């Protein structure tokens, strides 16, 4: 393609609204343009990379026997009301009405549509298992769209849905999908981790997220320094490996702590470290009030709390309500002498604390010398806190480290949640109706494109992996001298005839502009026709490594065949 | 692909809502399913055909140097207000609001987005001409979605936009697009006509529609019996080739025609043919009242009237208003003695009428023996009527015939309408800002799929052209006998290894079901493993022609290579 005939609007300056590295380079190198907040156009270069990513995804989905189809973005609200996601999705769900005032949504995912299709078309166990997928545009009205393609309102996803008669069949498909995702992200050249994730409210069981490692990532991954263990920080288990102190247990006593509210204030006032304090927080878990106690330097993980209590909903009780229930404010609540209708649970770390401090359930008063195994009664211990860097890895190998990740994919055993809501049954071998079980499997396609740029760039622009770059070769001609123009035209013809995908910068621009644009765009191999054109000699440069060399026109095809294959 | 592992839900009966031939077969053969009125899912077979159609379109667009990109479906209402299409599109435009109560539309086309992109990114004549295109999902809230994929609310289009400095450049691109469209529809195997069409209200100039011929078509094409002339019936010119009568002109006279309202009633009452009456209709063209006169057997073509008067809007005046203006009702208005502020125009055919009848502008009175060249004064003559079958073709070759067509594509010289509304300028060679001129070029991709089925079916199902079929070969095994199963598995492996795209009906179904499904689906070549399996002999059948033959397993690859290449 001649650069003069296509649209690659590079920018010298970084646009003010570019709030992520990938966003900056994709805008500056002319791959995308924002239409409005969270909605983008893919310009010709962006579309070419998108196609290459999609082709890899398709190959791997087809290889495991998933069936590509195409479902609509416009969805009737009725199905969403049946699954109760009409309410559950809140403002993120884009809603509209047609000319007859009927409600519709723009699909953020397609569980409803896919399940209702299979409900209507699959009748027998003989037709199962069945996996369908699509690559299609999704909609989500983000409160704060940001980071370019990483968090948009209109975006491209690959979403797959598998339908099964048995849990074993689902397990098998889940593993196949997991392996296919691993192959896809490896082929895309991404530095990624698959992490244990939270199955959330949709009644699912196992789920893994695939995270591309990147500073801009909005998720924290807890991974082992020595094994392949990795989990979303919300899900990373903390083992009960705390050692009991050998310190002598002192006598429990009350002390005045006037106006000391926070853990830090109390610790400073009583002149001990933060980890000698016991932090007590009152939660409402469905209809039950629960006092949760952690060590002062630890943070309660509400997802763990929810799972431990098998609760649908967990929320912190506000100070007024706390006062009403416990007759004392936030600063001085504690686990000793709590009313019977309030359940007390402590994080494992609390059990081994010695001579610790906690609120005494009297305003401005704390207990000191609390020894939980001695002083707390009717108390459960559980893993309730967020993991910290340096904690032992739950698989027993190495210690936990943190990294930031961009969620690019998720595999999810949905189970029977949607099938039950939508009455999606099949007839088993005995002719009896049973509920289908399901998996769903997503890849954020446009987000993955941005994640690749987060990992493949330098200070001059994008440095695409060879097989994802919009073109294989960038051919530059430095000026309008006839010998340069002629040689460049010859080479363009020669390489195109040999089957290479070439972008030919034939524009009437200064050499400096062409070099800068070429670095921005990031095509892996650059051929520059310059001063030595009359000798048939050109410059050959590798974008990722900056290696460069002179090369005779006659050697180009062989050389390119060598580096590209 | 094994048929047991994919989703091809064939139907024995035609669904009640299938209101077009293509709709019926696409539903029955399991290519599509309706999600709700006017919105469809493409099942695996449908998606495969869609991909093949899209690939042909892409090849031809790329071959003429159009640049593929991808614009969003979600569009800010602001641009639509700037071009005034926010109002002009009426209820067909799907509107929505985001969480911040801002207005959006779901794009029915992308002139606004494309023009604003080029306005922002293209600055100089050096970057022109430039053509962009996309294959993307469009939305239109049809009052009455029908005919399956032919008139839906969510549908797939290829839309291209070209931007030019000069009219000559636009003319050149228009011709290239016209040729590319001709190649595309030829490659898709369609029986189509390109027809002269109406440029409509958007200020455009030349435009051609590409019509697939089909009985279900909502457009009437007027074409020549002897040349390649074809036009939308709205646009087909009628030449002024009428012969004056040799009949003696009689004296103009008034006759009473009490209660005779319609042309037919008056003709019967006065005992003459319909074509001896002059039909007068009062229109309002912008702010001007115009009395339009045609022969009694002809119909006024409002588009011709609008063009003749250079009016933006033309509408028939109702009877009350007619009475107010002319002091007489519909039945008795006529062109003689009309008030000066009402313009009179007659269709060419009126000029040569002899001793004709027209309303006398008195209730229940008509003139007889009207001879227009003698009795009508200050009257213009023009081509104002719809063409009829048998009229001479405007190119002088043959006579006009009618056919029904499905509009599958349109090429359109938009000119400067959008560029002016959106201030899309470029700097010319003198550094002076000038307005861009534009073309736009659409293909209804999902509609084209349906149009192909309208032309390729028989009474048992779809009869795909070879290169558009979802698979090349349909392999059937008739029962579960080991020798049949084994041979079928061997052939499946053999053909797949040889690179053929095979659908293998490995289901545990009766032979009759398999044959019926295979006919419905319409894969061009069918191989049936049946009774002679133990001898390695199979049946080979061509779907379109029903030719069938026996064939030894060992000959299959060669035979398929021969028929497929």
Automatic annotation (TrEMBL), chains A, B:
Its EC number is 6.1.1.15. Residues 38-465 form the Aminoacyl-transfer RNA synthetases class-II family profile domain. It comes from the Bacteria. Gene3D superfamilies: Anticodon-binding domain (3.40.50.800), Bira Bifunctional Protein, Domain 2 (3.30.930.10). SUPFAM superfamilies: Class II aaRS ABD-related, Class II aaRS and biotin synthetases, YbaK/ProRS associated domain. Consists of three domains: the N-terminal catalytic domain, the editing domain and the C-terminal anticodon-binding domain. This is Proline--tRNA ligase. It comes from Amphibacillus indicireducens.
């Amino acid at each position: 393609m001649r650069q003069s005939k296509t649209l690659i609007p590079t920018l010298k300056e970084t646009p003010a609204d570019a709030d992520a590295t990938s966003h900056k380079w994709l805008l500056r190198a002319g791959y995308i343009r924002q239409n409005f907040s969270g909605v983008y156009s893919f310009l010709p270069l962006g579309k070419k990379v998108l196609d290459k990513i999609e082709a890899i995804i398709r190959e791997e989905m087809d290889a495991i026997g998933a069936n590509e189809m195409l479902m609509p973005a416009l969805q009737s609200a009725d199905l969403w009301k049946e699954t109760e996601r009409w309410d559950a999705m809140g403002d993120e769900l884009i809603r509209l009405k047609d000319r007859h005032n009927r409600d519709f949504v723009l699909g953020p995912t397609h569980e409803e549509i896919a399940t209702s299709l299979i409900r209507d078309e699959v009748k027998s166990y003989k037709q199962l298992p069945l996996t369908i997928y699509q690559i299609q545009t999704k909609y989500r009205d983000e409160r704060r769209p940001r980071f370019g393609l990483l968090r948009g309102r209109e975006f491209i996803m690959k979403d797959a849905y598998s339908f099964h008669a048995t849990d074993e069949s689902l397990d098998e498909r889940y593993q196949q999908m997991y392996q296919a995702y691993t192959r896809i992200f490896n082929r895309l050249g991404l530095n990624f981790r698959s992490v244990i994730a939270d199955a959330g409210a949709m009644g699912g069981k196992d789920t893994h997220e695939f995270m591309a490692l990147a500073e801009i990532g909005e998720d924290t991954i807890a991974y082992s320094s020595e094994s392949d263990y990795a989990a979303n920080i919300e899900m990373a288990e903390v083992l009960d490996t705390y050692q009991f102190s050998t310190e002598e247990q002192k006598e429990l006593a009350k002390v005045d702590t006037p106006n000391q509210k926070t853990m830090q204030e109390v610790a400073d006032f009583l002149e001990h470290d933060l980890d000698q304090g016991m932090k007590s927080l009152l939660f409402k878990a469905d209809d039950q009030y629960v006092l949760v106690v952690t060590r002062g330097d630890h943070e309660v993980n509400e997802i763990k709390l929810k799972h431990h209590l098998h609760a649908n909903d967990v929320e912190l009780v506000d100070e007024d309500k706390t006062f009403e229930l416990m007759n004392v404010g936030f600063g001085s609540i504690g686990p000793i002498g709590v009313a019977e209708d309030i359940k007390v649970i402590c994080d494992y770390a609390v059990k081994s604390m010695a001579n610790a401090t906690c609120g005494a359930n009297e305003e401005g008063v704390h207990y000191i010398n609390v020894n939980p195994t001695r002083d707390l009664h009717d108390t459960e211990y559980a893993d309730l806190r967020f993991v910290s860097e340096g904690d032992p890895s739950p698989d027993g190998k190495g210690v936990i480290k943190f990294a930031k990740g961009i969620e690019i994919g998720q595999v999810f055993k949905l189970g029977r949640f949607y099938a039950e809501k939508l009455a999606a049954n099949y007839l088993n071998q005995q002719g009896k109706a049973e509920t289908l079980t399901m998996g769903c499997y997503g890849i954020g396609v446009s987000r993955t494109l941005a994640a690749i740029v987060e990992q493949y760039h330098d200070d001059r622009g994008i440095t695409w992996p060879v097989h994802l770059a919009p073109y294989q070769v960038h051919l530059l001609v430095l000026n309008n001298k006839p010998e340069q123009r002629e040689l460049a035209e010859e080479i363009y013809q020669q390489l195109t005839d040999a089957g290479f995908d070439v972008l030919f910068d034939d524009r009437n621009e200064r050499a400096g502009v062409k070099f800068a644009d070429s670095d921005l765009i990031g095509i892996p191999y650059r051929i520059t026709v310059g001063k030595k054109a009359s000798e048939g000699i050109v410059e050959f440069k590798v974008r990722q490594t900056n290696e460069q060399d002179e090369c005779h026109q006659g050697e180009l095809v062989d050389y390119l065949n060598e580096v590209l294959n």
